[in-house]
Known about the structure:
The protein is an alpha+beta fold.
Amino acid sequence: MTSETPTQLVVECPECPFSTVVGEDDRSAAVIVREHGAKTGHAARIAKVESEE
Length: 53
C-alpha cells in the first residue's frame, strides 16, 4: 500500500508577494482569488503543486 501525498494548489499573485497553499479539494482557492482581487484589484492565479517523488 502506497501513501499518496494529497495534491495541493498554490494561489499566488504576480503583482504582489501574496501566496498561499490550499488542498486540491478545498474550494477556498477560488474564494481566495476573488477576495484578493476585490481587495487589491490584482488578478491572482491558481497553480497545481507537483509532488516530487
